[in-house]
C-alpha cells in the first residue's frame, strides 16, 4: 500500500508538472500589417451657360448659368466671377460698351453642392447708352469662373 500511495503522489506531482508545463509552454503569436490609402484628386466644377440676345444700348439682360459639382464629395462654391468686367472688343465695338456683372446665387439654390448637384446663378450684362453703331450684331463673350472648397461643415 505504501507503494501505491507513493505512486499516487508521484503521479499527481507528475500530472501537475505536465499540466503546468503545458500552460507555461503555450506560445503567443502576433501579426502586423501596414495599411495604406491613396487620396483621390479633385475634379473641376462644370459651368454651363445659356446664350442671350436682345442686348441694346441702355439695356441690361440677365444670363443664367449652372455650376455642377463632379466630385465624389460635397463642395461649397466660394466665388463665381467674370474673367473681366468689360467685354473684349468685338468687330469695331469698344469693349467698354458692354459690362459683365458679378454672378449672384439664384433664389432657391444652395452654394453647398453634394456630389452631382448643381446651383443656378445669374449675372447682368449691360450695354452703355452711347454704345457705338459697330456694336450692332456683335457677339460679346466672357468667361465666368467658379471656385469651391471641399465642404468641411
Describe what this molecule looks like in 3D.
This protein is of the alpha+beta class. It has one helix and eight strands. The longest helix has 23 residues, at 2-24. It is elongated and about 100 Å long. The chain starts with a helix and ends with a strand.
Question: Topology, please?
Answer:
Layout: H1 2-24, E1 46-49, E2 60-68, E3 75-82, E4 98-100, E5 104-105, E6 112-113, E7 118-127, E8 144-150
Antiparallel strand pairs: 1-2, 2-7, 3-6, 3-8, 4-7, 5-7
Radius of gyration: 38 Å
Number of beta-strand segments: 8
Multimeric status of the protein: single chain
**Rough outline:** elongated
**What structural category arises from helix and sheet content?**
alpha+beta
Mean pLDDT, nearest integer?
A: 83
The level of helicity is 10-25%
**What's the tally of helices?**
1
Percent of sequence in beta strands:
25-35%
Characterize the biggest β-sheet: 5 strands, antiparallel
The termini sit apart by 85 Å
User: What are the secondary-structure elements, in order, as H or E?
Assistant: HEEEEEEEE
- Unreliable stretches, pLDDT < 50, 5 or more residues? none
